[in-house]
Amino acid sequence: MRTDYILTKVRPIKKMFIVENNDYEAFEKLFLEIQDEIDVIQNLIFVNDDDLWTQTSRDFIKRSDPDIILNLSTLDDNKLSMHFGIFSVKPITDHYKISRFGTNLFSFTKLPTIIKRFNKEEDLEFTVLSGSKLENTPESLLACVNYGLFENKTKEQLPLTIFKNVTANFLTKKEDLINSLFATDNKFIQLTTEIGDFGGSGHGSSIYEVNYNKEGLFQGKQKYIFISKQNDFKTISYFWNTRSYYPYSEIAWIPVDYIEDISAVVDKETTFICFDIELERKIKSLYPNSIISKPSGLHFSGRNERWKFFEHSQMISITDNEAVILHPAEKSFSDIGSIGAFVLETRGLRELVYPKRRSVGKLFFPEYHDFAVFENQFQRISELGLSTYVLKVSPLKAEDISELIRLPSFTKVLKHLFEDIGYTIKTTQKSSILEQTINLLGGLGELSIISDKHIFELLITLTPKVRTEKIVKKLLGGASEKITSDNVLEIIAEIREKGAVNFPSVTLTTEDILAKTTVPRDEKKNLLPILQKLYDQRIFLRGKYFQCPSCSSNLWIQIDQIKRINYCIECSNVVNIPIYLNGKQDSDYFRLNQLIVRAVDQGQLATLLLLNAFYQQKYQTFDYQSNLEVYEGENLITDIDLFIKIGKKIGIAECKSTSGFTETQVNELIKIASKMQCDFIAFSTLIDATREEIRDLVAILNKKSLNIPAFIFTNQSLFNPNSNMIQKNFELRHKEDFLNGPIIVS
Question: In angstroms, what CA-CA distances link 321 with 318, 324, 462, 639?
C-alpha cells in the first residue's frame, strides 16, 4: 500500500461536434440538445474540411481537451479518434445520443459562496437575452447563435437551481438583436461563463506550446464581426470556437442578410472576419474604413482552466493497484443529490501521466465494470490526468462522489497501445537480461556508475573476448558483407547462450584490474572506492584462483562457496586452497558476474547507457520497456531496443555498440514511430560524433519528412549525460517552431 496526493475536480462534460458545411439539420440537432447545458459555448464545433486536419486545429482541440467527439458528418470515426486521441462516435444509437453527454442547468443547485452575482433576493429576477426559437432563417440563426435559446421546458426545470429567478428577454426585433450583439454579460448562452471562470488560470503561454495568437486578436475592446451566409457553418464554427476561447471579447456572428443593418455597431476599429471573396468586396464597399481578415486558422495561446472552485485536494491510499477516489458533495454542482451526468477529473498520480489516446482510459475501470451495459460511460486520459464520466441519480440525497479506479502498469498500457493499432508485442530473453542487470546494479538510480567511461571500458575489457568474429564471417560467405560487427557479436552471443561454444572467464587481481583501466597512473587510486562498490553490488565476484595439483586445471572458487572440503570441477579430486603461490602470499582474484558478461555479449550494456541518459532527464515520470518484438498477426515485422516514456512523451530507440545504422533500420523505426504517434525517436551508438557513420545517419534522416525530433546519442553524450539534454529540444525559446529531424545530442 502507498499513499499519494491527488487533486479532483467536478466539471461539465465537454463535447466536440463534426458537421458537414451547409448542413443545417445537423446543427439544429446538436444545438437543441446542448442549449440548456452548463458551459454550452465550451463545446466545440468543426466542419468536415481540410482545415480540420491542420496542426493548428489539432493543437486547439488538444488545449480545449473535449471528452468525446460526436460525429454528425460523413467522416470515419476511427480516423477521427486515431488522429485526435479522443473517442469518436456517431450519435445515432440510444447509448450515444447527444443528451447523454450533457451536464444540464437543472443539476446546478448549489450556489458557490464566493460568487456574488447570483446571490440576490428571491423576488428579484435576473434577465437574460435569448432567441425565441430556432429556425433556418437569418433572423433565428442570428439570435440563437449569439444569444442562445431559453426554452420553456428549460425554465420549468430550474425551480430548485441557482437559476430559479432567471427570466428571459426574447429578442425578436432586428434592432434589438443587433444593438445587444456585444453584451456578453447577460446572454443566456453564456449564463455560466463567469461562474466557471472564477479562480481560473487564464490562457497564459508556455515554452512547450506554439502561440497561435502573437497578434493579440480577439482581445481588448476591439469589435470582431464574423459574417457569412446563414448556413455557412465553416464561418459559424470558427466564430463558435473562437468565442469558447475568448468568451468576454466583443465578437459576434451575423448572416450576410444583415450586413447593411449593422452600421450602428461598426466603427473604424471593427474587424470583419469572412472567408468569401464576394462578401469581402461587399464589406469593403459598405465599410471602407474597417479591417477585413481572412484567418488561415484559429487564434489562441495556452490552455484555459475552468471550474477551479470545484477542485478538492486530498491524500489517498493505493492498494493492489486500485484506489477509491472521493470528491466532497459541497464541491459539486448539487447540494440536493446528483441528478445528471458530469465529469470527475483526477490528477496527481504518476500512473495517469500518458499521452492522449482514444481508448487507454478503459484500462482504468475496475475489473467488474460492464462495458456492454455502460457503453457510453467513458473514462479517458486527458491533458491533466484521468477524466471519468459520472452519472449519479440520487435526488434529494446529497452524497460524496466515489469512484474506484484501477492503475494499470506501464507494461499493460504499452501492450494496449500496440494492440490498438493492430500489433502485438513480446519481450525477449534480452529484456530479462537487461532487467536483471539493472537490479544487480541497484536500480535505475545507480545506472550512472556505468556512464563513467573508464568503468564501462573496464567491464568490456573484463568480459571474455570473442575471437571468432573472422571465422563467423568466413562461414557466412558473401552474406557477411551485409552484416555489421554488432550483428556478428549478436550471433556469437546467441550461440554462446545455447552452450554451443564457451569462452574462458577473465580472472584478475585488484592490481591487474587497475592496470587494465585507461585512467592515468596517479589517478588510479580514485577508482578503488568505485571498485569496492562494484564488488559490494556483486558486479565483481571474489575468489581463489589456482591450479589443481592432480590435473593442472585452472580453478576459481568463489569466496562464499569455499567449503571445508573442496573438489576440482574437472577431475573431482579433493583440492586444498593455497595460501601462497611461488613463495608469495596468494591474492584474491576477481571475475565479472556472469550476468554482466551476458549483458555485454547481448549488447545490453550499451542499451543501459541510453536508458541512463533518458533517466537523467528532468521529467515527472519515467517508464520504459526493452527488447520488444513487434508482430502483425503471426509475422514478426520489427524489433524495438527501447520504448521510453518521459513525462507524457513517448519514443522508441535503436541501440548499437560499435556500428552505424542502415537506411532499412531507420525506415523501420520511423514507420513504427509514425503508427504509434511517437513524440521522438532515438539512435544510440558508442562511436564518436565525428565518424562517417554518424554523418551517414544524419544524411538518411534529412531525406525523411520527419515532424518529430530524431535524437542521435554518441559516446560524447552517453558518457557525459546531463539533466537537460532532451528537454531543451522540446522548448520553443527564441524559435518559431519545434526542432524536428536529426539532433545530435550534446
Answer: 6, 11, 42, 30
